[in-house]
Amino acid sequence: MGSCCHTLLRDLEFLKVVIGVKRRGDALVALDKRDGFTTADWLEACVGRSPDDEALVFEGQSWSFKELDENANRVANWGVSAGLAAGDTVGLLMENSAAFIFFVFGLSKLGASAALINHNLTGGPFAHCVEQTGCKALIFDTSLCATIGAYVDSHGGGMRMFCYGSVDSDAPAFALEIDPFRGHAASSVPRELRAGSTRLNASLGTTGLPKAARIHHLKAMLAGVTMYDFHRVGKGDRVYLTLPLYHSSAMLIGVFGCAALGLPLLLRRRFSASQFFSDCARLRATVVLYIGEICRYLCATPPGPHDRAHSVRAAIGNGLRPDVWEQLVERFGIGYVGEFYASTEGNANLINNQNRRGAIGFISPLIKRKYPIVRFDVERERVVRDAAGRCVEAAAGEVGELLGLIDNADVTRRFDGYTDRAATEKKILRDVAAEGDLYFSTGDLVRQDVEGFVYFVDRIGDTFRWKGENVSTAECPKVAEILSAAPGVSESTVYGVSVGSLEGRAGMAALVVEAASFRFEALAQTVASLPRYARPLFVRLLPALELTATFKIRKGKLVEQGFDPAVVSDVWLYEEAAGAYRPLDVEMHRRLVSGQVKL
């Protein structure tokens, strides 16, 4: 795959940004080696460049970078009085707010790391996330009291709990009510409190199903500004963010990226399709951050007065389907869509800054060795190797797994993995192109065209995406295992199925049950403990699950058969409003696939 003349400028621009990222990263490493340099020091340096510029806008209030830093200092000084210390991991269970950001930066000034917990989780999945991060304390806002209360009821009150909310709110009996922004100094805490913290210590952690990913200080400092460099975001831009802050893209690109470049972040508590562009017009937003599901909702809204009466020039995000991409551009007049492909923990990150519709990025011939696409055997769920034991490169147009070269000596090639070492090891592929080399296994199937543009095809194995979230069926805590806990369920498997033109794949479960003891009412109660996006919307009852020669469940055939009652029998649909499963008939299937009934 050679570089065509019409891709030469693209590749040269790409190389220029990569060199800039490398230099920026090397400078941060040098600072850290000399005197220690973490996100706390980095924030203070960012603030020093534009202290009086607008940093954050939220619900009618505005904070300058100096005020953002002062509030982070107040959190740090409160943390000292509360006994928090360097090395502690503190869980944050909060809806979007300015305070969320102050807590993240304030904890970093103590040398503590913030575990960003998905506030949609409840029950067992929530408990799993708390336990796998090793939290010493939890900070939550008043809207999440019920989640924390249920956790305390089932797991005890051994962990320190801090409730942040309005002045009038009463903290639950198991928590201390806090307001770090009243009565605590705005001055910096001594750097000695975080002595020993380095660029490679955990700064943040994202949690949810299936695994908790670690984000070290260096990645936090580089990720957002790198993304903005590639997508040509800079001075004069104003970034509108409605994604939840527990998402790595919201925190790293939105919060850290804006701080790095001195840009105002326009934060909303939660996404609203009907108010999205009126917000953008009022706040003078020029850049919006998205996931594909958000764009689909926007395109589904009735025409409105602000469809084009706004100043948004660019949308940056991932997971945007080609058909929705076209609607977004044509209806709302957004001149630039910057799609990217990335994972919180991985290093196989692709950028599409060429407005190539449908592409998740491109692989320049200049870095081909670092981002190979290799043939993959879907049936055996493993890469294809040649007689010498090396992976076989996929040809242009051929589907294969995307990999990322691991080199921890290079700031752009690190892979630090998860809090679970076994999970980290499973993502490392060895001897790919040469003996002893290491590559990050993305677990995603892609295809590349002759110009180097890459297109997402599917996720390997048991993880699929629905409602903008990853749904794990095979890794702890297993959705299938949770289903198996329902009375009368003897075997279960979960997979994703396409529903008409909807984004992602909806969860579907195939169950083998004992007729005498199985009840759909009990199954519905069991799935209610899962977050909404992880609940199987379709259930199929089978006499047995078909196995491969290696005793793995043949999911491929189940996925192909789908949920059409004209093709398969005994299929049930989960009706969320009723919290119950109902038999799925041909007419309801037609309405679901046509989009007449929303999921």
TrEMBL record:
Domain AMP-binding enzyme C-terminal: 479-552
Membrane-spanning residues: 245-267
Molecular functions (GO terms): ATP binding; long-chain fatty acid transmembrane transporter activity; long-chain fatty acid-CoA ligase activity
One Pfam family per UniProt: AMP-binding_C
Superkingdom in the source lineage: Eukaryota
Gene3D superfamilies named in the record: 3.30.300.30, N-terminal domain of ligase-like (3.40.50.12780)
Sorted UniProt keywords: ATP-binding, Ligase, Membrane, Nucleotide-binding, Transmembrane, Transmembrane helix
Domain AMP-dependent synthetase/ligase: 44-402
GO annotation terms (biological process): long-chain fatty acid import into cell
Any single GO CC term annotated in Swiss-Prot or TrEMBL for this entry: plasma membrane
InterPro entries documented for this protein: AMP-bd_C (IPR025110), AMP-bd_C_sf (IPR045851), AMP-dep_synth/lig_dom (IPR000873), ANL_N_sf (IPR042099)
Similarity annotation: Belongs to the ATP-dependent AMP-binding enzyme family.
Name of protein: AMP-dependent synthetase/ligase domain-containing protein
Originating organism: Emiliania huxleyi (strain CCMP1516)
